[in-house]
Write a structure and sequence with these properties.
Layout lengths: L2 E5 L8 H13 L3 E3 L15 H9 L8 E5 L15 H10 L3 E4 L4 H8 L5 E3 L3 H5 L6 H12 L2 E6 L6 E11 H6 L13 E7 L3 H13 L8 E8 L12 H11 L4 E2 L13 E3 L2 E6 L4 E6 L7
Parallel strand pairs: 1-2, 1-3, 3-4, 4-5, 7-8, 8-9, 9-10
Antiparallel strand pairs: 5-11, 6-13, 7-12, 12-13
Helix pairs in contact: 8-9
Length: 302
């Protein structure tokens, strides 16, 4: 049995039934789900006022150890909070007894701000979209608990890209959020890392533009490898005349000097792995089969 603590730092949860279903599933599995009042909270498009939402984040310093922190959903809103978050307090709290903080999408902004101060969090499922999905995905659930229970674990997939071996700090998450942090103190300065990226509802040319922004900022070529997850709802149209996500990736490979491996089940899909951002990673790709081995992150004390 684990204790989940809900936070809502971003958008209002429009799918209240999904959030309720997520709570029911977790409780039926024997877990406790705390702070459920944030699910229904709303101010305009946000899950409460800025003050309420930043209070959710800053209150994490007082939670008991071994707690799993889970955002209700993403959307937009975390960027408003960055200047008001008690980063130093959260970093000191994690040094004492780490919380297991998991989420993705808009939450990437907060995760990167924490990583800039040495705090490892997990990029993985959230309450409404994942635990509250119409059908709970067994792959997503299995990889979530694998990440939170094992000090060393691996994910494997049939990746595309050049054969390579690389080691470094795993970091990244939602592409749009990372690009929004360029030039700010909330983007960690990681050299020799393994950068994982995903996004949703972005046309391939927008994905390309954001990737080129990271490239022009000098970030991509400072990494040892780049791993692309899912880019949901990125279908091209007639105007593209053959330009697609696949051709965009081929083009990007001609522009950067580090291996780029695609195809990881990671992001805004029902099926997603859970990755500890800030952990040590070893990537092995033989041209067809890819393994990412992760270590150095906190796990549940069960």
């Amino acid at each position: 049995m684990s204790v989940f603590h809900l936070i809502a730092p971003s958008g209002y949860c429009i799918n209240q039934s999904a959030a309720a279903r997520g709570v029911e599933r977790l409780e039926a599995a024997g877990h406790e789900v705390h702070n459920q009042a944030v699910i229904a909270r709303r101010e305009q498009r946000f899950a409460g006022s800025d003050a309420e939402r930043v209070a959710d984040v800053n209150a994490l310093v007082d939670l008991p150890e071994n707690t799993i922190v889970l955002p209700v959903r993403g959307g937009y809103g975390a960027s408003r909070l960055l200047a008001q978050i008690d980063w130093e307090g959260l970093a000191l709290r994690q040094q004492r007894s780490p919380l297991l903080i998991c989420g993705h999408s808009d939450f990437t902004a907060i995760q990167m701000g924490l990583l800039a101060r040495g705090v490892v969090t997990f990029s993985g499922p959230m309450l409404a979209a994942n635990f509250g999905a119409d059908t709970l995905d067994a792959f997503t659930q299995e990889h979530f608990w694998r990440a939170l229970r094992n000090k060393t674990y691996s994910v494997a997939w049939h990746g595309e890209g050049p054969a390579c071996e690389a080691q470094g700090t795993l970091w990244g998450g939602n592409l749009a959020m990372l690009v929004s942090l360029i030039g700010t103190p909330y983007l960690p300065a990681i050299d020799g890392g393994i950068l994982v990226l995903e996004d949703i509802n972005e046309h391939p040319f927008r994905v390309e533009r954001m990737l080129l922004s990271l490239h022009h900022a000098g970030i991509l070529n400072r990494q040892r490898a780049i791993v692309l997850g899912s880019f949901s709802n990125s279908a091209p149209n007639e105007y593209d005349a053959g330009y697609s996500l696949h051709s965009m990736i081929d083009y990007l490979r001609t522009q950067i000097d580090v291996p780029l491996i695609s195809g990881l089940a990671f992001g805004h899909e029902p099926q997603t792995v859970t990755l500890p951002l800030g952990a040590q990673a070893t990537l092995n790709h033989n041209g067809a089969h890819t393994t990412l081995t992760l270590t150095g992150h906190s796990v549940l004390n069960e």
